[in-house]
Amino acid sequence: MTGIRVSKIEAAKRQIELSIRFLFQNEDPIGILTLAAAGFRILRDLGEKADAQTHHHLKKIIKPGMEGKLWKAFNRPADFLKHAEDIHDGILENIQEEANDVLILFACFYYKNLGHQWTPQMEAFITWYMLLHPEIIELLIEDPTKYDMVADDEVRALKEKPRSEQLTFGKVITDRVYMAIRTI
What is the spatial distance between Cα 43 and Cα 86, in angstroms, rounded to a whole number? Predict the structure, then answer.
Protein backbone atom coordinates (compact mmCIF):
# COMPACT_ATOMS: atom_id res chain seq x y z
CA MET A 1 0.00 0.00 0.00
CA THR A 2 1.32 3.42 -0.94
CA GLY A 3 1.16 6.13 1.71
CA ILE A 4 0.17 9.69 0.93
CA ARG A 5 2.39 12.54 2.05
CA VAL A 6 0.86 16.01 2.00
CA SER A 7 1.50 19.39 3.60
CA LYS A 8 -1.25 21.44 5.24
CA ILE A 9 -1.27 23.96 2.38
CA GLU A 10 -1.42 21.21 -0.27
CA ALA A 11 -4.25 19.47 1.58
CA ALA A 12 -6.20 22.72 1.83
CA LYS A 13 -5.59 23.50 -1.84
CA ARG A 14 -6.86 20.09 -2.88
CA GLN A 15 -9.92 20.36 -0.64
CA ILE A 16 -10.81 23.77 -2.07
CA GLU A 17 -10.23 22.65 -5.67
CA LEU A 18 -12.42 19.59 -5.13
CA SER A 19 -15.15 21.66 -3.48
CA ILE A 20 -15.10 24.01 -6.51
CA ARG A 21 -15.39 21.07 -8.92
CA PHE A 22 -18.26 19.61 -6.91
CA LEU A 23 -19.95 23.01 -6.71
CA PHE A 24 -19.90 23.49 -10.48
CA GLN A 25 -21.11 19.93 -11.02
CA ASN A 26 -24.04 20.81 -8.74
CA GLU A 27 -23.14 17.99 -6.37
CA ASP A 28 -24.36 17.56 -2.80
CA PRO A 29 -24.05 20.88 -0.90
CA ILE A 30 -23.32 19.02 2.36
CA GLY A 31 -20.25 17.34 0.84
CA ILE A 32 -19.15 20.66 -0.63
CA LEU A 33 -19.59 22.33 2.76
CA THR A 34 -17.55 19.64 4.50
CA LEU A 35 -14.65 19.90 2.03
CA ALA A 36 -14.71 23.69 1.76
CA ALA A 37 -14.88 24.13 5.54
CA ALA A 38 -11.94 21.80 6.12
CA GLY A 39 -9.79 23.60 3.54
CA PHE A 40 -10.91 27.02 4.77
CA ARG A 41 -10.06 26.18 8.37
CA ILE A 42 -6.53 25.10 7.50
CA LEU A 43 -6.01 28.26 5.43
CA ARG A 44 -7.56 30.50 8.09
CA ASP A 45 -5.30 29.01 10.78
CA LEU A 46 -2.23 29.41 8.57
CA GLY A 47 -3.35 32.93 7.63
CA GLU A 48 -3.75 33.90 11.27
CA LYS A 49 -0.26 32.63 12.08
CA ALA A 50 1.22 34.36 8.99
CA ASP A 51 -0.66 37.60 9.64
CA ALA A 52 -2.27 37.37 6.18
CA GLN A 53 -4.07 40.35 4.63
CA THR A 54 -7.35 38.42 4.41
CA HIS A 55 -7.22 37.78 8.15
CA HIS A 56 -6.81 41.51 8.80
CA HIS A 57 -9.63 42.31 6.37
CA LEU A 58 -11.98 39.92 8.16
CA LYS A 59 -10.98 41.33 11.55
CA LYS A 60 -11.84 44.85 10.32
CA ILE A 61 -15.37 43.92 9.32
CA ILE A 62 -16.14 41.96 12.50
CA LYS A 63 -17.54 44.10 15.30
CA PRO A 64 -15.04 44.24 18.21
CA GLY A 65 -15.89 41.71 20.88
CA MET A 66 -18.04 39.66 18.48
CA GLU A 67 -15.24 37.63 16.88
CA GLY A 68 -15.96 34.47 18.86
CA LYS A 69 -19.68 34.66 18.21
CA LEU A 70 -19.16 35.23 14.48
CA TRP A 71 -16.70 32.36 14.08
CA LYS A 72 -18.97 30.08 16.12
CA ALA A 73 -21.89 30.85 13.78
CA PHE A 74 -19.62 30.58 10.73
CA ASN A 75 -18.24 27.21 11.87
CA ARG A 76 -21.54 25.81 13.21
CA PRO A 77 -22.54 23.89 10.05
CA ALA A 78 -19.11 22.32 9.59
CA ASP A 79 -18.82 21.46 13.28
CA PHE A 80 -22.26 19.84 13.18
CA LEU A 81 -21.17 17.68 10.25
CA LYS A 82 -17.89 16.51 11.76
CA HIS A 83 -18.75 16.07 15.47
CA ALA A 84 -21.45 13.99 17.11
CA GLU A 85 -20.49 14.12 20.77
CA ASP A 86 -22.62 17.16 21.72
CA ILE A 87 -25.71 16.77 19.55
CA HIS A 88 -25.82 13.26 18.15
CA ASP A 89 -29.44 13.36 16.98
CA GLY A 90 -29.80 17.04 16.07
CA ILE A 91 -30.90 18.58 12.80
CA LEU A 92 -28.97 21.20 10.87
CA GLU A 93 -31.44 23.79 9.59
CA ASN A 94 -31.53 27.07 7.70
CA ILE A 95 -28.16 26.63 6.01
CA GLN A 96 -28.10 28.41 2.68
CA GLU A 97 -26.35 26.59 -0.16
CA GLU A 98 -24.76 29.89 -1.22
CA ALA A 99 -22.86 29.98 2.09
CA ASN A 100 -20.52 27.45 0.47
CA ASP A 101 -19.63 30.10 -2.11
CA VAL A 102 -18.50 32.53 0.59
CA LEU A 103 -16.50 29.83 2.34
CA ILE A 104 -14.70 28.97 -0.90
CA LEU A 105 -14.18 32.66 -1.71
CA PHE A 106 -12.45 33.40 1.59
CA ALA A 107 -10.43 30.19 1.33
CA CYS A 108 -9.16 31.35 -2.08
CA PHE A 109 -8.19 34.75 -0.70
CA TYR A 110 -6.36 33.14 2.24
CA TYR A 111 -4.55 30.83 -0.17
CA LYS A 112 -3.35 33.77 -2.26
CA ASN A 113 -2.43 35.86 0.79
CA LEU A 114 -0.25 33.00 1.97
CA GLY A 115 1.92 33.59 -1.10
CA HIS A 116 0.44 31.11 -3.56
CA GLN A 117 -0.95 31.70 -7.04
CA TRP A 118 -4.58 30.82 -7.51
CA THR A 119 -5.00 27.51 -9.26
CA PRO A 120 -7.02 27.43 -12.49
CA GLN A 121 -10.04 26.18 -10.56
CA MET A 122 -9.70 29.00 -8.04
CA GLU A 123 -9.36 31.53 -10.89
CA ALA A 124 -12.51 30.15 -12.51
CA PHE A 125 -14.38 30.26 -9.20
CA ILE A 126 -13.28 33.84 -8.43
CA THR A 127 -14.32 34.95 -11.93
CA TRP A 128 -17.71 33.23 -11.56
CA TYR A 129 -18.27 34.67 -8.09
CA MET A 130 -17.32 38.13 -9.24
CA LEU A 131 -19.80 37.93 -12.11
CA LEU A 132 -22.56 37.15 -9.63
CA HIS A 133 -21.31 39.68 -7.07
CA PRO A 134 -19.68 42.61 -8.87
CA GLU A 135 -19.35 44.44 -5.55
CA ILE A 136 -16.17 42.44 -4.89
CA ILE A 137 -14.39 44.02 -7.86
CA GLU A 138 -12.41 46.26 -5.53
CA LEU A 139 -10.81 43.14 -4.06
CA LEU A 140 -9.74 42.06 -7.57
CA ILE A 141 -8.79 45.41 -9.08
CA GLU A 142 -5.29 44.08 -9.76
CA ASP A 143 -6.78 42.09 -12.65
CA PRO A 144 -8.50 44.50 -15.07
CA THR A 145 -9.59 41.70 -17.42
CA LYS A 146 -12.00 40.50 -14.76
CA TYR A 147 -13.29 44.05 -14.34
CA ASP A 148 -13.98 44.25 -18.07
CA MET A 149 -16.03 41.05 -17.92
CA VAL A 150 -18.43 42.46 -15.34
CA ALA A 151 -19.31 45.45 -17.51
CA ASP A 152 -21.12 43.20 -20.00
CA ASP A 153 -24.92 43.42 -19.49
CA GLU A 154 -25.41 39.87 -20.73
CA VAL A 155 -23.10 38.54 -18.04
CA ARG A 156 -24.85 40.67 -15.40
CA ALA A 157 -28.06 38.84 -16.29
CA LEU A 158 -26.42 35.72 -14.86
CA LYS A 159 -27.28 37.00 -11.39
CA GLU A 160 -30.99 36.73 -12.21
CA LYS A 161 -30.79 33.11 -13.43
CA PRO A 162 -31.65 30.08 -11.29
CA ARG A 163 -28.84 28.64 -9.18
CA SER A 164 -28.50 25.56 -11.41
CA GLU A 165 -27.84 27.76 -14.47
CA GLN A 166 -25.35 29.86 -12.51
CA LEU A 167 -23.45 26.71 -11.54
CA THR A 168 -23.53 25.41 -15.11
CA PHE A 169 -21.97 28.70 -16.20
CA GLY A 170 -19.27 28.22 -13.55
CA LYS A 171 -18.48 24.82 -15.02
CA VAL A 172 -18.20 26.41 -18.49
CA ILE A 173 -15.69 28.93 -17.10
CA THR A 174 -13.69 26.12 -15.46
CA ASP A 175 -13.69 24.07 -18.67
CA ARG A 176 -12.49 27.10 -20.66
CA VAL A 177 -9.67 27.73 -18.20
CA TYR A 178 -8.52 24.12 -18.61
CA MET A 179 -8.74 24.33 -22.40
CA ALA A 180 -6.63 27.51 -22.33
CA ILE A 181 -4.02 25.82 -20.13
CA ARG A 182 -3.77 22.82 -22.46
CA THR A 183 -3.06 25.07 -25.45
CA ILE A 184 -0.17 26.83 -23.70
Answer: 26
Question: CA 1 → CA 14, 31, 35, 144, distances in Å?
Answer: 21, 27, 25, 48
State the amino acid at position 148 in one-letter form. D
Assessment of whether the complete model's pTM goes beyond 0.90 = no
pLDDT tens string 7-24? 999 999 999 999 999 999
C-alpha to C-alpha distance for 61 and 95, rounded to whole angstroms: 22
Task: List pLDDT tens digits, range 96-127.
Answer: 788 899 899 989 989 998 999 999 999 999 98
For residues 140 and 127, is the Cβ–Cβ distance under 8 A? no
Triad 12, 108, 18: Cα angle to 5°: 50
Contact 30, 77 (CB under 8 A): no
